[in-house]
Amino acid sequence: YKGWLEVHHIFDFSTYPKLKFEESNLIVLCKTCHDAFHKVYPKNKTNTLENLEFWMDKQYKYRQVLQELLL
What we know:
two-stranded antiparallel ribbon; alpha+beta
């Protein structure tokens, strides 16, 4: 079932390179969900935690960790 799951960077690594491999900045989505997210929030734009939370309609579990890393 290769390709069913994909890793999404909550804060895109082109804008936030120090978060590229930070586990709290990664979330696993099925390919269908990942594609749907990027239809609303294109890959060539800055992605944020707020985008993800709005799209999921809930608060991200590691929100505080990510916010502290951005300080």
